[in-house]
Amino acid sequence: MDLPENPTGAIFVRQQDTLVHLDAKGQAQYLGYRIKVLHPNALQLGNLSISWNPAGGNPVIHALKVHRDGEVIDVLKDARFEILRREDQLEAAHIDGILTAVLRVADLRVGDELEFSLTTRTDDPTLGSTSSGALVLHPEPGPGRYRLGLSWDDGQKPTVRMTPAFTAAQQAGKQALDFQFDNPPVVIAPKDAPPRYQVFRFAEYSDFADWNAVSRRFAKLYSETSQIGSSEPLMREVARIAKLDGGKLAKASAALKLVQQDVRYIYVGLNGGNLRPADASETWSLRYGDCKGKTVLLLGLLRELGIDAQAVMVNSSGNDDGLDERLPSPGMFDHVLVRAHIDGKTHYLDGTLPPVVPPSEKPLLPYRWVLPLTSDGSGLEHLDWHPAELPDSINIYEIDARQGFDEPARITSRTIIRGVAGLEQQVQLSAVSKAQMLSAFRQSLTGDTWQSIENVDWHYDEKAGASILEITGLGTVDWDDDGDGARSLALPGGGFNPPQRRVRTAEQDQSLPYYNKPEFSCHVTTVRLPADTRPEQWSHKRSFNQGMFGRNYYRAFAIEDGSLRMVRSYRVEEQEITAARAAKDNGRIADFDNSMGWIFYNPERDRPVVNRIDVPATFEIDWATDASACLSPNAA
């Protein structure tokens, strides 16, 4: 493409080709570009790095040149790529065997044009000639010309589905599709729209007829690799588990804990292992494996225990919204776990999670779609979403001020965390001694609020599925002096910031729904009131129960038994709301109560206490198992 008269930005793309060719071995990908450097920030284009899987063959470099004032400089005449064996995710227990080659183009200058082209292959031994993938145009491309193409050998024509932008740009040949975009506009994802609306400008292709075909293909692999021989050491574990009391669920729990605890997680993508699971016996012998290896090991154990189970593929990155609208492809999944049918109920078992996570009727992560792997083939299954019954986090704060306003108070802070965050804390704190934990928290927290920390206690409650951390000690209470003996205090976690307006720019689709990321949090605070005060001398900010934008904001107070209690919660009630609903709630933001959770003491006040809502104190219930007080009275 000709260079414009007054180009702006860091680069101008004279030409960029991204081409995919399908053949009997798999896929070949060609990338070629010639880019004009317009700004010093773009000189980093000369730091070239290419990565490839050697199982598919080495990459082929076609050209690396610099064009300068009519002169063409062949960079490869005097420079060579340096090949590295670099496991860049080794710290995450991820080994894939990918090779990387790097080269730094010397003497690259502003005004130069860098030309580079290469071909790489992805020939997966598990899939062979069965291909799937997508051509994607970046939503914010630099100015210039972009060509994307898909071609195929005889007998390799895939099913193709594309977005309107690609449909408008396509040029169809006998065994190819080409798409050319000149100065494509920047496309900004519609603000706050559900994830399925965040993907645009792509053409996807697949050789799989439907999701059932993907299911059948991988079910065979998992069936073959999960077989356990009768003389193997694994059978001793089967015999041991089979003797346990408690029925099939107890045995499934024991098998799951064995896989979680005795087989460490390492992703191994070598020798075609990125899709094909290692044999159950091999995983047990090595005592390490990835999600695939752990899944087939667990499947083998459950089969020998007479428990009906199957592998299910999922997307754990949160990108499975709208999966049913995409062409069938195993690349849409990044994780696999086990689903077992026990006593008429479905249970999910994930061998990659810590050994404190038992079988559960709902997966730990909020998957929208799962693909069961069955010999007859299964389609995608949708998992319904419901508002959380228990908070993801509960912050419990107790201030014992019975000694008086001017004395240090005994403070107890307890956090209850569920889900992935709770497991992350479990992994972190379970390896720390009690003395180390106490020392660390004393070092980090002692200061303005905490005068001294006396004890730190942590444990993971498997029944509640929660990590529970409790800190006790003495601290300063920042009572405000309101004059004439009156005092006030803003309780921690007592207020809300007003929600933001949900609006989109004029060029975006105004009719799309708005998305709420699921969340449920709760703050519970109890103040044991100074012993020389009376309940009728105390008051507090008003309680409220407000629904807005599919979320519920709740706060309630009570004064009882010498203590002032507050509970404040926030829960997403609807994942999506309509644009009309959002517009209506935009007009209600001015009425939102964003007051802090103030409590007041007035020695002259003499009004009887009227509690309209029962609010339990921090010490009255087990908040890890009974968090009903965090729900507003009208919660579904």
UniProtKB/TrEMBL annotation:
Protein name: Transglutaminase
InterPro entries per the UniProt record, alphabetical: DUF3857 (IPR024618), Papain-like_cys_pep_sf (IPR038765)
Domain DUF3857 residues, every copy: 30-184
Species of origin: Croceicoccus naphthovorans
Recorded superkingdom: Bacteria
Sections of the chain in a coiled coil: none
